[in-house]
């Protein structure tokens, strides 16, 4: 898999590139936002993942993420020192598929890269016969992966859509956290739990329905169907 590493620190980039290469990745290193955007010009085999550090010298990392998302559907994993939920939700709203908080474990990073790439490959071929789900004013088009509220399309990331679609298939039923992580992230890795919480918060915010997804303390989440 080709991987675009956007990192301004050459020492960090060299060490990380060596680790990624040992795990079979073909790494291209961009030192700033402009180099990253130039590297995404279509030619040859596309990138499987963009690993984007937010602390770039020429542009704000969030701005770069937004520009990348306008150019390509390639999964973006943000690398950030900001651990607050609001910063992570902001990144997800701009189109990031996942994030890793510094300092991170290399095993954690590799797990997230593989999870994102597996999920993307799975999503590229929607199952035949799927149609749409309607929950009050919320409409979920499964073949096109489009969500609308009162007829207005809401832009969701891949994982946000998968999470919403999973819960919407059985409104009122409690999904265990472990089950959601297995279905949406296709992994049993425990560190994904915090990511789940951030995605739930992002969905509530984007859909402007804080009560749509109910937290069942100690168990998981369920979707509470809104009134039409």
Report on this structure.
Keywords: DNA-binding, Phosphoprotein, Transcription, Transcription regulation, Two-component regulatory system. It is a single chain. The chain is an alpha/beta fold and about 230 residues long. The chain has eight helices and twelve strands. The chain has helices at about 10-20, 35-40, 60-70, 85-95, 105-125, 160-170, 175-185, 195-205; strands spanning about 1-5, 25-30, 50-55, 75-80, 100, 130-135, 140, 145-150, 150-155, 175, 215, 220-225. Strands 2-1-3-4-5 form a five-stranded parallel β-sheet, with helices on both faces. Strands 6-7-8-9 form a four-stranded antiparallel β-sheet, covered by helices on one side. Strand 8 and strand 9 form a beta hairpin. Helix 2 packs parallel to helix 3 (about 60-70), helix 4 (about 85-95) crosses helix 8 (about 195-205) and helix 6 (about 160-170) packs across helix 8 (about 195-205). It is globular and about 55 Å long.
